[in-house]
Amino acid sequence: NPAVPEENYFRYAILASLRAIDYLESRSDFSGKLAVTGVSQGGGLGMMVAGLDERVDLLVFSNPTHTEHQGLRYGIASGFPYYLEKVEDSAPGDIDLFQTTAEAIKYYDAVYFAKRFKGATLGIVGYNDQVCPAATTFAAFNQLGGQKILFHGTNLGHQHPNEYWKGQQDAFRRFLEPAE
Predict the structure, then answer these.
(1) How far is CA 11 from CA 102, 109, 160, 163, in A?
(2) Which among 62, 30, 32 has a CA at the least distance from the CA of 45?
(3) Order of strands, edge to edge, in the sheet holding 120-126?
(4) Using alpha carbons only, what angle is made at residue 86 by residues 82 and 88, rounded to the nearest 5 degrees?
(5) Which H helix or E strand runs over 172?
(6) pLDDT grade, residue 178 (50/70/90)?
């Protein structure tokens, strides 16, 4: 139920990600350098985790979801999973449900998390992405505070091309020290 922050699936995904970081930190063979990476929903989740946990050094994403949920309120693009659009479709005119949902989904909008992340970032945006409109990715990317690079796929939809995967590996080599 997107109108209740505690019932959103991504709450559990975020909490599980934080526990995974705790586990890594507990290992003697962990180098101390940490990257989060993902595509689509994984990209949105990675952005949320990077903004939430200061132990993350590098964020690498492709076409992230969960960005700019409030777009519909302002006549601009909203990112997947289109929470407010679904409320309008399922309960047209229910202003209370719309407002409650709008407040609740702020807890799961990567734009707000991106403001807090100060590490290095590598991302890719597809200008023809019908799932995650480019404007929503830019809204989050522009909030990131650290060193950042964004590849522009002017003819790219919601794919994750070879250049992204090569860039991801290069970013790992450049920003993360190997474990000894």
Answers:
(1) 16, 11, 25, 31
(2) 62
(3) 35-39, 58-62, 120-126, 148-153
(4) 120
(5) helix 162-175
(6) low
Half-sphere exposure of 174 (CA within 13 A, CB side): 13
Question: Which tens digits make up the pLDDT trace of 124-173?
Answer: 999 999 999 999 999 999 999 999 999 999 999 999 998 899 999 999 99
pLDDT tens profile 47-95: 999 999 999 999 999 999 999 999 988 999 998 999 999 999 999 989 9
Average pLDDT of the residues in 97-121: 95
For residue 9 the two structure tokens come to 């699936």
Report strand pairing: 35-39 vs 58-62: parallel
